[in-house]
Amino acid sequence: MSRLNDVYRERIVGELQQKLGAHSVMQVPRISKITLNMGVGEAIADKKVMDHAVSDMRAISGQQPIVTNARKSVAAFKIREGWPIGCKVTLRRERMYEFLDRLINIAIPRIRDFRGLSPKAFDGRGNYSIGVREQIMFPEIDYDKIDALRGLDITITTTARTDAEGRALLEAFNFPFRT
Q1: Which CA distances in Å does 161 have to 36, 129, 166?
Q2: 157 near 127, Cβ under 8 Å?
């Protein structure tokens, strides 16, 4: 069991049940998965860029990413159907809680000029998305071995039905929202 999973089960569930007025523990929202997505448009010109992006994503997430291919050709971007243009990872269960712990306590405080995450990035159903400009905020990435700064999208999918429930859940995990 990861530390954050224990905190959720022992402390957060009880707090949220009272705060949200849930009758059952099963009505309390929880995090179901975390998806990491990295678009690598430069991979069209150089195939080694995709290898570097995959290795960075593997180091950050702790599991092998899937290389995503273009679904259709776009002449303006010089992309053909089936060419690799990105990579993604879906984290669940223990790896999800370990990643969330590292994200909240280590990676987010290392963001340059950080003033808090936007509370408006919810999608209307309690899911939260963060866009990160640099992958070097994660301590697993060796600063001397990176070839380029790449951004990635982090989507936290919850079982919350509304944005207010999703925000209450993430605030219980000490998510650093802007006030």
Answers
A1: 22, 16, 8
A2: yes
Distance CA 140, CA 137 (A): 9
Return the SS3 of 36: strand
List of residues 6+ apart from 178 with CB closer than 8 A: 115, 116, 117, 118, 119
Full-model pTM: 0.79
pLDDT in tens, 114-150: 888 888 888 888 888 988 887 777 878 777 777 778 8
Distance CA(84)–CA(19), nearest Å, equals: 46
Q: Which two tokens stand for residue 175?
A: 């998510």
What is the chain's Cα-based Rg?
A: 18
Containing 34, the helix (H) or strand (E) segment is strand 31-39
3-state secondary structure 71-118: CCCEHHHCECCCCEEEEEEEECHHHHHHHHHHHHHHHHHHCCCCCCEC
- How deeply is 99 buried, as exposed, middle or buried, from its count of CB atoms within 10 A (0-12, 13-18, 19+)? buried
Q: What is the mean pLDDT of residues 164-179?
A: 85
